[in-house]
Amino acid sequence: MAESHGGGCCPPMDLMRSEPMHLVQVIVPMESAHLTVSYLGDLGLVQFKDLNSDKSPFQRTYAAQIKRCGEMARKIRFFKEQMSKAGVTPKETLDKDIDIDLDDVEVKLGELEAELVEINANNEKLQRSYNELVEYKLVLEKAGEFFASAHRNANAQRSEIETEQVDEDLLEAPLLQEEKSVDTTKQVKLGFLTGLVPREKSMVFERILFRATRGNIFIRQSVIEESVVDPNSGEKAEKNVFVVFFSGERAKSKILKICEAFGANRYPFSEDLGKQAQMMTEVSGRLSELKTTIGAGLDHRNILLETIGDKFEQWNLKVRKEKAIYHTLNMLSLDVTKKCLVGEGWSPVFAATEVQDALQRAAVDSNSQVGSIFQVLRTKEMPPTFFRTNKFTTAFQEIVDAYGVAKYQEANPSVFTIVTFPFLFAVMFGDWGHGICLLLATMYLILREKKLSSQKLGDIMEMAFGGRYVIFMMSLFSIYTGLIYNEFFSIPYPLFASSAYECRDVSCSEATTIGLIKTRDTYPFGVDPVWHGTRSELPFLNSLKMKMSILIGVAQMNLGIIMSFFNAKFFKSAVNVWFQFVPQMIFLNCLFGYLSVLIIIKWCTGSQADLYHVMIYMFLSPMDDLGENQLFPNQKIVQLTFLFLALVSVPWMLLPKPFILKKQHEARHQGLSYAHLDETDESLQVETNGGGHGHEEFEFSEIFVHQLIHTIEFVLGAVSNTASYLRLWALSLAHSELSSVFYEKVLLMAWGFNNVFILIIGILVFIFATVGVLLVMETLSAFLHALRLHWVEYQNKFYEGDGYKFAPFTFTLDGNEDE
Fold first, then answer.
1. CA distances from 29 to 32, 51, 289, 347 (A)
2. What is the pLDDT of residues 532-576, one digit of tens each?
3. What SS3 string covers 6-61?
C-alpha cells in the first residue's frame, strides 16, 4: 500500500498517491542472464532502461538471437495464416508453463514449413493443371459444337450445289469446270485459334482483332453460363469461348499478341471429329485423376495443419517469450570484462524483496557460481507513475489517464472521480426508469464478464465492456437522482408519501402555485409529484436545477483547490500553500462561494431577492443600498469585505511566488562551483544518464510569465468554469423534456386512438425512441459533458498530469501482440 513520504498529510490509499518507486541496478553473470530476465518477466515489476540507446539494433549483443526469433515468428505467422485459410483452429494449451527447448522448436518449425511449402506448391501446380483442363474441356465442347454445325451446313450447301449443276446447260459445263479447276489450285487454307477470353473484355477483344487484321478474320464466341476459375489468377471469372479464323502467319502473330495482352488462354483444337472425341475422353480422364490427387493432397495438408495446431500455442508463446527476453537483454550493457551484464530499471519499493528472490532463484536454477547483485541507485530523474488498480477502479483510472498520466506521487483525481463522475452524469441523466434500464444492461455484462472477456467483441461493445463498472455506477446514481427528480420515464410517482398540496379548484393544472393549498407535511424525499403538469413546473425546475448546478460546481472546484493543498503539503512546498492555495480559496469563495451561500439562504428564508442583481451590482455599484434584495443584516459590509479580499488575492497569486522562487534558487546554488564532489561514481553516472536537472538556469522572466498566465487563467476560469457547470441544468432539463415528449406525444397519443394496431405501433416507436435517443445518444452526451467537467473544471485546479506510466517488462501482454 502506498505510504505518504511527504509529511503524512494524506490517507494511506492505494489510489491517492502512486506507488513509491526506486531506481535499481542489477549486475547479472552472463550464464544466468537469460533465466534472470525470464524470471523478472514472470514477475512483471521492473521497467528496464535502455543503456544501449547509442547503438543501432545490429550492433547490440543479442542481435543474432533476435533475428533468429524473428525468423521463427515469421514461420509461426505463416502457419497461422494457413490454418485460418483451412479453417483449422489452434488448440488452447492448458499447461502453458511446459518448458520447450528453443533449438528443437526451431528445427521442428523449419521441417514443418518446408513440408507445408512443398505441399502448397504441389497443390498449386495440380490446381492450375485442373483449372486448365476444365477450361480445355469447355473449349472442346463449345468449339466442337461450332465445327459440327459448320460441317452440317457445309454438307447441306454442297448437296444443293450438286443438284443445281445437273440442271445447267451442257455447253457451259466445260468452261465452268475449267474455271473451278483454276480456283482449286488458288485456294488458301485458313488457320484458326481457340481459347477463352474474359467476358467483360470480349467485345473490345473482337474489335481490336478486327482492326489489327483489317477485317481479314472471322471470329465466333460462345458464352459459358457458369463462372470458371482462371488458372493464372486462381479467381473465379466469367468467360467466353472464342474461335478465330485467319489467313497467313502475319495475321497469326498479331492474333497471338492480342490474346496475350487480353489475358486470353489458348488451347489446341483439331478439326477432325475423331480426334476431338479422343481428346475429350483424355481430358475427362485426367480431370478425374487430378480431382482425386488434389483431394488426397488437401487431406494430407489438413492433417499436417492439425498437427501444427496441437502445438501452435506452445510454440507461439515460447518464441514470443524468447524474443521479449532478448529484446530486454539488449537493453542491458555489457561489462568491460564481458563476463556480466549491467541493467538499470524502475521498480516499486514494495517489490524489492520479490525482485531479489527472482534473482536468487535464477542464479540457483542456472547453476551459476556467482550470484546477481541488486542495489538501489540515487537519481534526480522523475520516476514513472504506478497505481495498483483492480477491475473496478481500472476504468476510472483510464478516464483520468486519457487526460494525462499523473506526475510521480501527485494527488490522483481517480479517488474522487469514482464517485463524482457517475454523480455528475446522473445529475444530467436523472430518471430512475432509464437508470434501471442501464443497470440491467450493465448487469448482463458484469455477470457474464468471464465469458465475454475471452471473446472477440466489436469496437463499441469492447468499449462498453471495458467501462462496465463505470456504467454500473452511473446507473445507480441515475436511479438516485431520478428518485430526487421524481421521474420514471418522465412520470412522477408518490413513492414516499402523498403530495403535500391539493388543488383549490378544477383549473389547478392551468394555474400557478396560487392554485395549490398545502394540506400535509412537506414531501419527504425529492420533488413533490404535484408539480408535474402544472404551468409552474418548468420555472420551478429551472430555478431548482440551475441553482443546484452552481452549488455542485462551486463544491467540486473547492475540492480541486483543496487537492492542490494536499499536493503542496506532500511535496513540502510552502510557497504553493501560501501563494497559490490560500489566494485561490479566497478569490473563489469570496465571489462564487458567497453566491452559493446566498442561494442556500434564499431557499431557507423563501426570500424574493434577485441574486442576479445582487452579484452584478456587487461589482458595478458596491456602495449602493441593497433594498429589497438584502437577505441578511450587514450584507453590504460583508460584500465589500469579500470584494476587497477577492481583489487583493489577485496580486497575492501573481507577484510573490516568482520572487520567492528566484531567492530560493540563488540560495540553493550559492557557491556551487566550489562544492565538494561527495557523490559516488554510480550516482554521478545515473544523473548523467537521466540528464540531471540540478544545474538548470533559472529564467525569472519565464517563471513570471508562467505565473501571470496561471493567475489570469484562474481568475477568468473561476467565472467561466462556474458558468460551465450550468450544463448540468441544461442537459437535465433537455433529458426530462425529451422523455416527456416521447411519453405524451407518442405513447399517450397512440393510446387515445383506441386502436390496437396504432397502439402497438406507438409502443414500438416509444421503445425505439427511448432506447435510441435517451439510452444511447443522451447517455453518450451526458458522459462526454461529465468528462469535460472533470478534465477542465476540476482537474485544472491541481492536476499537472505530465508524468509517464510505469511499463514493466512482463509476459502477460505479449499474447495479444503480433510482434
1. 6, 17, 63, 21
2. 877 778 888 899 999 999 999 999 999 999 999 999 999 999 999
3. CCCCCCCCCCCCCCCEEEEEEEEEHHHHHHHHHHHHHHCCCEECCCCCCCCHHHCC
Section 36-64 average pLDDT: 92
> Cα(400)–Cα(380) distance, rounded to whole angstroms?
26
The amino acid occupying position 753 is F
Q: For 370-409, write each residue's pLDDT tens digit.
A: 889 999 999 999 999 999 999 999 999 999 999 999 999 9
Tell me how crowded residue 777 is: count the other CB atoms within 10 A of its CB. 12
Position 351 pLDDT exceeds 50: yes
How many CA atoms does the CB half-sphere of 722 hold within 13 Å?
A: 19
Asked whether the CA dihedral 63, 67, 73, 77 is positive or negative, the reply is positive
User: What does the pLDDT read at residue 126?
Assistant: 92
Residue whose C-alpha is closest to residue 566's, from 705, 412, 434: 412
DSSP one-letter code for 407: P
Instruction: Single out the residue of 84, 85, 72 nearest to residue 112, CA to CA.
Output: 72
| End-to-end alpha carbon distance in the chain | 34
Q: Are strands 239-246 and 236-237 parallel, antiparallel or unpaired?
A: unpaired
Q: Which pLDDT does position 500 carry in this prediction?
A: 81
Q: Dump pLDDT digits (tens) for 248-283.
A: 888 889 899 999 998 888 888 887 778 888 888 898
Beta bridge partners of residue 346, listed in sequence order? 23, 47
With vertex at residue 138, the alpha carbon angle to CA 133 and CA 142, rounded to the nearest 5 degrees, is: 150
Bridge partners of 344? 25
Return the C-alpha cell found at 454: 475471452
650: cell is 489577485
Measured distance CA(441)–CA(542) in Å, rounded = 31
pLDDT band at 667 (very low <50, low <70, confident <90, very high): confident
Q: What is the pLDDT of residues 75-102, one digit of tens each?
A: 999 999 999 988 888 887 656 556 788 8
Q: Which residues lie closer than 8 Å to 646 by C-beta, 6 or more apart?
A: 586, 587, 590, 591
Q: Taking the CA atoms of 122, 124, 125 and 127 in sequence, report the sign of the dihedral they define.
A: positive
Is residue 568 within 8 A of residue 577, CB to CB? The reply is yes
Sign of CA dihedral 496, 501, 502, 507: negative
pLDDT given at position 278: 87
Residues 6+ apart with CB under 8 A from 612: none
Under 8 Å between Cβ of 416 and 797: no
- Whether the model clears a pTM of 0.85, i.e. scores above it, the answer is no
Q: Where are the alpha helices (DSSP H) in 634-748?
A: 635-654, 656-668, 681-690, 700-724, 727-742
For residue 215, give every residue at least 6 positions away whose Cβ sits within 8 Å of its Cβ, in sequence order, or none: none
Query: Which triple of cell numbers denotes residue 268?
Result: 489446341
R_g of the chain, CA atoms, integer Å: 43
Distance CA 617, CA 22 (A): 56
